[in-house]
Amino acid sequence: MDTPRAVLFDMDGVIVNSEDYWHVFEEETLFPETLADERPDNDEITGMNYREIYDYLDSNYETTVSKAEFIDLYNETSKKIYGEQVELMDGFDRLTGTLRDRGTKLAVVSSAPKSWIQTTIDRFELGPFDLVLSAEDIDAPGKPEPHIYEHAAGEVDAVPEDCTVVEDSENGATAAARADTYVVGYRTEANAETDLSMANVVVEGPQELRAELLD
Length: 215
Fold this sequence. Notes:
Elements: E1 6-9, H1 18-34, H2 42-45, H3 50-60, H4 67-85, H5 92-101, E2 105-110, H6 114-124, E3 131-134, H7 147-155, E4 163-167, H8 170-178, E5 182-187, E6 201-204, H9 205-214
Parallel strand pairs: 1-2, 1-4, 2-3, 4-5, 5-6
Helix pairs in contact: 1-4, 3-4, 4-6, 5-9
């Protein structure tokens, strides 16, 4: 494909390998401490904003804590995950640098709160980006609904059809597809079983992603 007008990167599981750590947290801490008996698969909630995760779990499972307690648990865990544990996608700086040199608009579009995104950007000295957008910046339902990607396209002065989205989760890929963007499913060991059928193409790791976006 031609170099896209704008590339919108999801953060968790794409820019950094945070899903590895979030899944461990969910399975070993979150679900045991906040749910009664039945527990969801990780893919059910991956890609969703954590406030909406609580609402989803409260509607579909038996929660045992308040929303405030649930959010505190996530926020406390995020400090270690983004501040200490996550690793940056191999070659991400080179990839974004080349795209930037070609005139491509670059954005981070994430369900994570702005503070989590900023911690990641500061730690790895990423950017500059034309847009950093959190689900909490818009007054609309988050992924898998399309609103965040529709909003992001407008913010970078593009129509969704001229934007390429890089997503690793089923909810994220669904949101991007519903927004009529070109969706690149990003496959790694952490999401080997994730349904990315909503993507236009699925790439395996950073080298295939680079080839898809640049060649």
